[in-house]
Each structure stands twice: as structure tokens, then as C-alpha cells.
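Anyone up for a design puzzle?
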């Protein structure tokens, strides 16, 4: 059994709908990323404390989701973990090909594609900043808000991420080769989570909503977040 020498942990939630009739015109994935479990536990405790205080103030016992909170309350939750590294990818739906948006399976594949690009971009940034090494074995753990997904969809996403990170891929349509990211063994674990039981998924919901709102309202300041890696597509 290979001992885990390094690990990167991602949490993701989405905001908006990847559909041509989405009123905002944008679909967003966003979340937090950690390179060690200790920092993750500290961040989780900070978010839980902020969450509990807000629940007490509002007299609520249900899950606090961005969709049913005021801007002030969302800001309080966001501020509790804003100092931690985060990632986001925003899709300008008007620029996505119609044939992708016409079919549910194509939409799922495209969402997996942008999520994979987001993960890869952050890992390349962590390597460039010397936070992780491309030459040591690594485990990539990805936690995503629970959603309807076929079992083969899970394996397709996991295998696709692992293939590109460890072996690179060839885009036959354009004759472009994307080189591998790691010179070592890569393990990818994906888990779909019930957000009511995962506080970092809840934090990711608040973050994704903030990024989505920034595009919907054209308020750039909402997405000017320190320690964030934001990508836009297509």
C-alpha cells in the first residue's frame, strides 16, 4: 500500500443552471481547496461557529443555504472562511454551443469538463507556488454537492481527471497535446455529499452564490477575492 505523501482536498458546489434560459446567463462552480487536513479542520470549525451564531440569531434549525439568506447574512458566513484558498469557474452560457445545451448528457459532460479544468488549473498553481511537488505521489480528494449522477458518470469524471493529471491527453480535433501534470502516482477520489452534513460544501454554496451574483448583477467587487483562482469559459 502506497503511503499518501501529499494530498489536495477540494470542495465544490454550483450556482445557476447550465441552460440557455438561465436568467443570469451564467453557471458557476466554486469551492475551497486545502493541502492538509489540519488546515481543513480549522476552516471547518470557523465556518461551524459562524453558522451556529447565525442560526441562533435567526432562530433557525434548518440548513442555511444562500438561496434563503439575505446578502448581509451570506457575507457573514463568507467572511468566516474568506482567507482560505478557493477556486471558481464561471461559464458564460451565451457562448456555449447550442448542441451542448440541447442534450442532458452533453450538459453533464461539459460540467465535468469545466470542473476538471478548474481542478487542474489549481493543482498547476500549487506546483508553481511550491506548495506541492509534481514528483511525489498524490491523492486528489474531491467532495461535490450531491446531485443526480449515474454511477458511470462518477467513474468517467474520476478517470478523466486521473488520466489527464498522470498521462496527459491528446485533443484529436485540434491536434493539441496537453502534457501530464505529475511525474508520480495519482489517486483521485470523488464523493458526492449531502450538504446538510458537510459544512465545507455549505461554505462552497455561499461562495458559488457570491460569484454567480457578481456576474448576474455585474458587481465585479464581489468576485475580487484574495487567494482565489477564478476561470471563465468558454
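Challenge accepted. My sequence:
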Amino acid at each position: 500500500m502506497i503511503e499518501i505523501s501529499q494530498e489536495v482536498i477540494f470542495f465544490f458546489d454550483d450556482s445557476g443552471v447550465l441552460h440557455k434560459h438561465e436568467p443570469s446567463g451564467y453557471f458557476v462552480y466554486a469551492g475551497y481547496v486545502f493541502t492538509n487536513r489540519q488546515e481543513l479542520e480549522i476552516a471547518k470549525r470557523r465556518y461551524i461557529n459562524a453558522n451556529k451564531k447565525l442560526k441562533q440569531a435567526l432562530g433557525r434549525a434548518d440548513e442555511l443555504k444562500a438561496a434563503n439568506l439575505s446578502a448581509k447574512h451570506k457575507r457573514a458566513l463568507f467572511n468566516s472562511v474568506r482567507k482560505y484558498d478557493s477556486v471558481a469557474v464561471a461559464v458564460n452560457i451565451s457562448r456555449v454551443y447550442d448542441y451542448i445545451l440541447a442534450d442532458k448528457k452533453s450538459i453533464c459532460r461539459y460540467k465535468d469538463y469545466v470542473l476538471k479544468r478548474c481542478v487542474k488549473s489549481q493543482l498547476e498553481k500549487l506546483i508553481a507556488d511550491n506548495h506541492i511537488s509534481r514528483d511525489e505521489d498524490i491523492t486528489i480528494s474531491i467532495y461535490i454537492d450531491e446531485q443526480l449522477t449515474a454511477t458511470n458518470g462518477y467513474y468517467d469524471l474520476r478517470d478523466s481527471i486521473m488520466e489527464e493529471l498522470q498521462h496527459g491527453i491528446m485533443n484529436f480535433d485540434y491536434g493539441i497535446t496537453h502534457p501530464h501534470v505529475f511525474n508520480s502516482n495519482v489517486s483521485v477520489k470523488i464523493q458526492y455529499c449531502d450538504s446538510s452534513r458537510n459544512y465545507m460544501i455549505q461554505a462552497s454554496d455561499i461562495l458559488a452564490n457570491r460569484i454567480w451574483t457578481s456576474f448576474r448583477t455585474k458587481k465585479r467587487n464581489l468576485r475580487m477575492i484574495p487567494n482565489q483562482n477564478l476561470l471563465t469559459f468558454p
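A detail worth pointing out: DSSP finds six helices and eight strands in the chain.
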